[in-house]
Every structure is written in structure tokens, then in C-alpha cells.
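On to my pick:
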Amino acid sequence: MPGEKEVARASEFIKTFAGRKPRTWEEVYAREIIILSKMPPTRELKLQAICIGDLGIAAIPCEVYGSTGLAIKAASPFDTTMNISLANGGEGYIAPPEQHKLGGYTTWRARTSCLEELAESKIKLAVVELLIEVATARI
């Protein structure tokens, strides 16, 4: 979450383009700081796992990196596992923790990437646990 000083600086900056949409990435992210400051500090995500026969399906309400999907498939108890991104919501990108060190738009603080840095690890673990649960329940 943005701190008070960041919000104050962003509030002053957005006055320079009042009455029009932001045009530069600086203007966009100043606006994002204001929007984020009004959002709750936590959010609840709906994660799901289901199986159809021998197929495991993981549903995640975020945009998932390929490496995350492959890690879920590798840890899944199913021989075939499918990951569905942006299922049951659109909670933004979940970049793996190591990607945050590299930067890039999927890690810049905005509504499209405002989950904590460890969100990907937590989501990945929870989804694999759900896949294990549904695999066990079918036996």
C-alpha cells in the first residue's frame, strides 16, 4: 500500500493534468497510487480445483506466469493438469517473487499488480493442496 507521503506527492502531481486522462506512465502511476490508497489492504481470492476423471483443473483469479502454471502441473497429483487464469475474478498479475527483483509492468504497483510479493507462492501452494484434496476425494 502506498504511504501517506506517496499519496500526498501523487495528489499534487495529478493536479497538473486535472480534467484529462493521464498520458504518460508517470501520470498513470500517480493516479494508481491514489486509487490504491483507497482500496482495502487485503483481499480474498477464490481458488478452485476440480477433477473430471483423471484431469485436474486449477482455477486462479489472476494472470499467471508460465513458470507458475508449470510448477502447479509438476506438483499436481494428476497426470494431466490444466490451469485456468482469470477464473472467478481478475485480481491482477501474480509475478513469482524472483520477478519482483527484475521489475517490469507486471510488478509495478497498480490495480493490475497490487498483490503482495509472496502472493504467487501462497496461491501456488494453496492450489496444489486443493488439487491433492480433490484427487484424494475421488478415490
Summary: Residues 48-137 form one domain. The longest strand covers residues 55-60. The helical segments are 4-14, 25-37, 66-75, 97-102, 119-137.
